[in-house]
Amino acid sequence: MKINRDSLLVKIIFYNNIAIIITSLAVALITTFITYEDMESRLVDMSREKIYIVEKAYNNYLTSVREDINKISREDDFVRLKQNNSSYKILSYILKNELVKGNFQKYYKIEIAILDDQGKILGFTGDKNVFDRGLNISKKDLAGLDTKENYIIRKEEKAYSRIIYSYKNNITKRKEYIIASIPFEINILQYIKQYIELGSSDKIFAFIGDSYVTGDFEENLDKEIISEKNLETLKANKYKYYYSKKKIGEVPYYLGVLSLKDYHENNVGCFGVAISREKLFTTKFIIGLFITIIVITLVMLSTTIFARMLQKLLWPLKNITESAERISEGNYSTRIKLEDTNGEIKTLAIAIKRMLRKLEDNQRTLKQRNKKLKENLRKMNTIEQLILEVQTEEDVTKIVQKVMTAFISELGLGFSRGMFFRYSRERDALIGEQAKINSHILEIDNDILKEKKGGFKFQIKELEEIIQLIKIPFSDDNIISSALKNREIKYYNSKGYKYNLGNDLFNSLGLNNFLIFPVYNIDYYTGVMVFDYYIKEKEISEEDIELLKLLLMNISIKFRSKVEEEEKIELERNITISKVAERFLNNREEALNKLLKILENTKNKDYNNITENIKEIEGRVEQMKQINKILMEYSNPSDREKIEEVNIEHLIPEVISEFKASLPKDNKVLISSFISYTGDILGNDKRLRRVFMELLKNAYDAVLANNKVIKKIDVVVIRDKHSNKLKIDIKDNGIGMSQEKLDLVFQPFITYKKDAPGLGLPLVKRVIKDCKGVVKIYSTPQVGTTVKITLNILKEEN
Fold first, then answer.
1. Long-range contacts: 665-669, Cβ < 8 Å, 24+?
2. What are the distances in angstroms from CA 122 to CA 436, 612, 783?
3. What would you report as the CA-atom Rg of the chain, rounded to the nearest whole angstrom?
4. Measured between alpha carbons, how far is 746 from 45 in angstroms, rounded to an integer?
5. Are 503 and 470 in contact (CB under 8 A)?
6. What phi, psi does 217 have (nearest 5°)?
């Protein structure tokens, strides 16, 4: 059986192997680290041990010298010479010669001095500078030396190891001292090195003061061996021993240093042992390589063995997995084998079998639910489409027809039949008006009758004729009228004959699983639609009713909005007519009163002032003609849709000139213009002239009404830099307007001037809008008003 790369078996083996490898590596690293640390610790311990042995070897060296001096000084010949009062100097030389003869390499540089109990040197060998100044040692120092037996002394750049041997002179009965002074040189180090058994790569060295004096290192490496800071520490008498890792001449060492003190406990130098770490690195590498090889070998063996064991153990799980995969692909006839399985895997297999049975049951349930879901989605789409159509349709009859069509369509809600009963106010009853049959029912009606599944021919074929014969009283006794009165949808998943439908003929139509859908407005009833499933075995659900409630709400809102809109339009029409009638009738009433007065005066042959009265009537008539003209232009302009090229550079100056010509000769209003655009715009020349003339007239009247000395009107025409628009500003310093007046400035028939129709600014707004432009007015009381107009500049492509 082939194993997939992403199978659980492979993953378990893989992750287990990873765990083994990680664990092995961790153990190997820890073991290596512990081993390395142990090796380092051993090297440190070796360095400490060696420096302790160095101190012991040095002391043994001095002890052996002392023993040799003691031995020679007790020999008969030497005793006899002392008794014969031989010269102390001779005795010193004899003692030195005897020592040299015994061990030349050890004593060839030794110097001997004999002192009395006062510290006076009685005799000595070699250079007198080897011993203390004046060839004497103070009695105080001698008393201190008497307890030491050996010490170190530094003379200039050299150091000497001194051994003190005291004895009693039998002749003088006084205590005398023999002091042996041995230079601190390589011979002492060689003795110590042999004694402590250093390796071939290990080193020994000695410092006197700050200077390297002897040892296995080259002299130029003294600064690398011990730094000045370490020497100062040793001099400060803080430590007797000092340890550190050092790299000396590119070779790593571990140093152990022993501080050397004189008899005053002052530091005079130091011994040092350098244990080489080169072999340590090699040893570490070999051990690391050895551990790595062992770990790799163990990992390979353990992963291979475990993989085989795990593969055999989990092989049934592989079979179960493949069976589960086939089940997931829809193959529910899969059979799961339980051979050679036990424990958790057998339990898993049994659980999968149970799951398989549940999956089969769930699949059947899901199919039913999916079918129901598709049906609900179809219904939701139908209702959504109906809501959109209701919002765009104005005719109530057509709305009813669309609803009925959608309800009885197999692509819609799928009802078998639909019937509409219109409410009649005159008869106070629901009158059957129309019926619709599902096309699917019409196709199988013969099969229905043949198989005797229920139903009669007249319930399908003659349904539309029968519906028109049905009249249902509008009362609470029947469920049809009750649904409309209560403005609620009612549904019944049972036969219709069980309920009072309000008409026996209606009861005979064989309603089955039906619902009642009322159609109404706020103040009046429209009618009722009844839908049923006839012989279908389908039921009406709560979800269906919730969707239909949404549709019913939208239909009601549509009808209510339509009524409100009609009432609003009617109200506005009445208000407008009232304003027009009031304004025009007042003007005509004044003119008629003047005319009656003239006729009365003529009748009474009173001809005084008749000429002035006639002129006044002529002015009234002319004013009424002008108002009529404005009203006609506002209500139905003949050239409203005419858009043409207009040269604004010529139009504005011509309008200003024409307006100035109409002003009185004593005009004190300054009218200025600034035009920076010479091209054409889109508009209507005649109507735009009327607009600018109206705006100039309003500005002129506002300026005359103020008390300012300077009265001016400015007209500015510029092109907008950021868009293909023309900006026209008409600004005056007149009386201005309050915000309340400004809000109503474009409302028709609203004016604050006597004998004005109130259509000037509304006409301006309409003309600018027809020219695809925008007009806005900004005003401040007692400051002035600015009218801003934006028009489109003509392009070649336009």
1. 668/711, 669/700, 669/703, 669/704, 669/711, 669/712, 669/713
2. 155, 173, 133
3. 65
4. 108
5. yes
6. -90, 160
Q: Compute CA distances 465 → 212, 434, 469, 511, 565, whole Å.
A: 136, 8, 7, 17, 37
Per residue in 230-267, is it b (16+ CB within 10 Å) or e — as a string?
A: bbebbbeeeeeebeeebebeeeebbbbbbbbbbbeeeb
> Does residue 210 sit in helix, strand or coil?
coil
pLDDT at position 491: 93
Helices and strands per DSSP (H, E), number in the chain: 21, 23
- Measure CA 155 to chain center: 80
pLDDT digits (tens, 9 = 90+) for 101-122: 888 888 888 888 888 877 788 8
Cα(358)–Cα(360) distance, integer angstroms: 5
| Beta-strand relationship, 711-719 and 669-675 | parallel
Q: Which residue's structure tokens are 């895997």?
A: 345
pLDDT category at 17 given cuts 50, 70, 90 is: confident
The SS3 assignment for 182 reads strand
Locate 510 and state its tokens. Answer: 């064989």
Structure tokens at 374: 């598709």
User: Could you identify the residue written with the tokens 């103020």?
Assistant: 706
Give the length of the chain: 798
Span 427-455, mean pLDDT?
A: 71
Instruction: Indicate left, alpha or beta for 330 from its phi (over 0: left) and psi (-120 to 50: alpha).
Output: left
Percentage of the chain surpassing pLDDT 70? 74
Compute how many other C-beta atoms are within 10 angstroms of the C-beta atom of residue 741. Answer: 13
Strands (E), 584-724: 644-647, 669-675, 680-683, 711-719
Q: Answer positive or negative: Cα dihedral of 388, 390, 394, 399.
A: positive
pTM for this predicted structure:
0.38
Residue from 158, 66, 179, 208 nearest 116 by CA: 179
What gap in Å lies between CA 780 and CA 733, rounded to an integer?
Answer: 10
Mean pLDDT of 354-360: 75
Angle at 765 between CA 726 and CA 569, to 5 degrees: 145
Which residue shows structure tokens 């309003």? 698
What is the three-class DSSP state of 247?
A: strand
Q: Is 28 within 8 Å of 298 (Cβ atoms)?
A: no
Q: Which of 30, 43, 32 is nearest to 286 (CA)?
A: 32
> Alpha-carbon distance 153 to 163, whole Å?
11
Q: Kindly report the number of other CB atoms within 10 A of residue 315's CB atom.
A: 16
Torsion over CA: 551, 555, 557, 558 (sign):
positive
Give buried/exposed letters for 573-587 (b at 16+ CB in 10 A, else e).
eeeeeeebeebeeeb
Tokens 């130098």: give the residue. 269
Q: Which is more confident, 610 or 424?
A: 424
Instruction: Write out the E strands in 52-202.
Output: 111-115, 121-124, 150-155, 158-168, 175-183
Predicted pLDDT of residue 698: 87
Provide CB contacts within 8 A for 695, sequence distance 6+.
730, 764, 787
Question: Contact, 158 vs 188, CB < 8 A?
Answer: no
Other Cβ atoms less than 10 A from the Cβ of 332: the count is: 12
Burial of residue 396, with CB atoms counted within 10 A of its CB: 0-12 exposed, 13-18 middle, 19 or more buried:
middle
The distance from CA 8 to its chain's CA centroid, rounded to whole angstroms, is 35
User: Closest Cα partner for 620 from 593, 659, 582, 580?
Assistant: 593
Cβ proximity of 620 and 660 under 8 Å: no
